[in-house]
Amino acid sequence: MKRASLRLVTPEARSDDADHVARSARGDVGALGALYDAHANALLRFVSRLVGDDEAEDVVQETFLRVSRAAAGYDARQASARPWLFGIAVNVVKERKRAFARLARALGRLRDHAVDASTGVEAPSSDVDRALARLSDAKRAVLVLAELEGFSGDEIARMLDVPVGTVWTRLHHARRELREFLGEAR
Amino acid sequence: MTEPRCTRGWQIEARHDGRLQGADADAVVSHAERCADCRDEKRRFDSLVAILRRASEPRVDEMRRARLKQRVLSAADAALVRREGPRPWLGFAAVAAALALGAFGAFHATPSERRTATTSVVTRAIEGARFSRRTERGHEVIALVEGELVVRVRHAAGPRRSAVTVHVPDGVVRDEGTTFRVRVFRGHTESIVVTEGRVAFTPSEGAVVRVDAGERWDRAHPSDALRIEPAHEASRAEEAPAPHRRPATVHSAPAPAAQPALVEEDPAATESIEDGLYLGAIRAFRGGDRARARRLASSYLARFPSGFRRVEMQGLVASIPPE
Predict the structure, then answer these.
(1) What is the pLDDT of residue B24?
(2) A residues 83-122 near B, CB within 8 Å?
(3) Which residues of A touch B59 (CB under 8 A)?
(4) pTM (global) more than 0.90
């Protein structure tokens, strides 16, 4: 996770993000567009890893639509709005999963056969993708944020609104499960 | 696999995560050099990290990103309008007004009608047609990808007339106060039949063709519009203006096989035309056909003045001198 400390965020970027978030909250769609331009790629990549390509766009759209509502909770001193946006995205994913699970349960009651509501992730292609898909959402989010997105433990804790100790624990368990699964797969 | 005997194995992970820093982190490194268990743990840990980072990177292409941006901004815009819209106490009045308008529309309008300030547009799609509609800067833009569409435009008296254009894969049909029918087959405009007013068809390649009431433009005879026998479109023939200046080659315009059926608008239609033009221009440019690249880029800009690729297309047009 040392990569996190290497991310370069210029003072200009800092003020831009804070400004764009504030203007978005006032209904400036152009500012929302600028925020999108700066972070959409990273968000799409991240969310695709969490929920798969098909659902990622809906999650990212919802994430940006929540910017104006969530702006009051944005700390303008943050180096970049990206961790904050990732945090919103994780919440959107959680809510969608809960809704999906409810729907699946309802469908399961309607039909006689069970519907797999354990995950909304698309069928993954490689061993690693399969291993990631087997992790719980919470562990997968932490692992992707730490190893693939390069966020620090503190940043992840703020994003997910959990104590940093929880981040370390989830990360440790995620790695262990991944190791076990990859060991089985080989 | 035997369990490691060294109790400091966890420090490998802690150092990686940044929980150990400075002298503590250095101590882990020097310890691992001497301790076989920790060396092994570090090797396995590094290998896991490497595998993870080699995991397939989700693909985020520019087109997808740009399209999503449009979705996000449109939704944000719509949310804003709702937020700034009428207060709840106006709800009943709004509902009543909407019902009254709806009843008026149902009485007067054929399906799929939209009204702008001074213009009403009615489209009927023959079954299987793929098209989309949107309003761009107050103008009605219809994108027809495949199939047949009947468009009826009514311009009411007023200071502003909204332009109505039908974008087909190989050109643009511009209304000039009209009822007309456009047919696209396998990516090419097959025919344009005008029963009222006039349309201007601007193909991607070639000169503008004007098709007047009672005429038909046919791909098989692209050089000119052809007269339609009055018997066709019988119900509208009486309303059609007097004959025209065009050569009077009599040509049968086939009557529709069945009553046109309404189909769903296809939101992907506009996108596929936009993508097709952009990609076509790029392909032509890379293939060395600069004239074609310029034509397609110009066509893109004409149809999608605020398209995602307008900057690239402007650059392309600017970089290729006209023939």
Answers:
(1) 86
(2) none
(3) 53
(4) no
